[in-house]
Amino acid sequence: MKNTSIRKPKDIVATRLLLGLAAAALFLHQEAPAAQSPVDLRSADSFVLLTKTGISTTGSTSVGGDMGVSPIDSTAITGFGLILDSSGQFSTSALVTGEIYAADYAVPTPTKMTTAIGDMETAFTDAAGRTLPDATELYAGDLSGQTLSPGLYKWSSDVLINTDLTLAGPADAVWIFQIAGNLTLGSAAKVLVSGGAQANNIFWQVQGGVGVEIGTTAHVEGTLLSAKAIHLRTGASLNGRALAQTAVTLEANAITNPNIGIAAVRLVSAGVITGPYTDAAGQSVNLATKTITVPKPDSMQYYRLWSGTALTVTDIRISGGSVVITYN
């Protein structure tokens, strides 16, 4: 006779409970994507403009940092009125607060530039190779008017920003945007930061066949890592770096070094004049033009400048949906 056992109802309940707990344990083990670490730019970090085929400008451009080209030579840097240093290792320009390097300058500059270009390409590959995105194909690539928390974002086509995009997060937060197509900012559109977010921790990896198009008077925060060209149209500004594997073209633009960016000057606000004052949400600081742009509030706000040195507000005006504060 077969030895069989009959499972009592309470045994069945217990089994189901154990299975449920096991399933819950498995579910809880599926961790959310880990926070991203910044892309290591290595020696490319010291450049605000770095390209392989040239940098050109028209109009009253202001570049707040070093720039360089390689393997193309210095003849591919146009519109800057280059003045070769007596060492022959770099040039200067009235439009550039920093030094200008090219592959045909004196030793050790050729090696310096080969290394920097290699590091730029390595950084591009690093950004492109990050896995476990927090979102894929978010908003079908149209980020106009959105607010994004830190993370890794991925698109298989173009990304468009026609109205202000806000990146909201603390100072150590990282954003990496993997864009298989092109990146386009419409005229007057801005990438804004809030909550202490830093341009040094924002990376735009752009693979498209055109590259990056920054419209008239638009503003970008972060490092642009482009497989093709980067174009900044008239009056556009960048707090970050333009690192292109072809060319960068400028038209009366302000480029700010992110290493001395928003931490040097910031805007604080309060609903009443006695405070307390906190960092104004969505502010964008342009050290080159000495302006701070912040979204126009729905109610009365009082503003103060925070800085390590004494500053004076020289003008406050409304421009579209923003308040623009000029200081000196």
Account of the protein in words:
Strands 1, 3, 4, 6, 7, 8, 9, 11, 14, 17, 19, 21 and 23 form a 13-stranded mixed beta sheet that branches. A seven-stranded parallel beta sheet has the order 5-2-22-20-18-15-12, with no helix packed on it. It has two domains: 42-260, no CATH class; 265-327, no CATH class. The chain has helices spanning 9-29, 109-128; strands at residues 47-51, 54-58, 62-63, 66-69, 77-78, 83-84, 91-93, 96-102, 135-136, 147-148, 151-155, 159-161, 165-168, 175-179, 183-185, 191-194, 202-206, 211-214, 219-226, 229-232, 237-244, 247-251, 254-256, 265-270, 278-279, 284-286, 291-295, 302-307, 313-319, 322-327. Helices cover 12% and strands 40% of the residues.
> How many distinct helices?
2
Task: Please state the CA-atom Rg, rounded to the nearest Å.
Answer: 25 Å
Main sheet attributes: strand count, strand direction, barrel closure = 13 strands, mixed
Coarse shape: globular
End-to-end Cα distance: 99 Å
Query: What is the number of beta strands?
Result: 30
| Oligomer category | single chain
What is the total number of structural domains? 2
Unreliable stretches (pLDDT < 50, length at least 5) are 1-32
- Strand % is 35-45%
- What percent of the residues sit in helical stretches (DSSP H or I)? 10-25%
- Average pLDDT taken over every residue: 87
Structural class: mainly beta
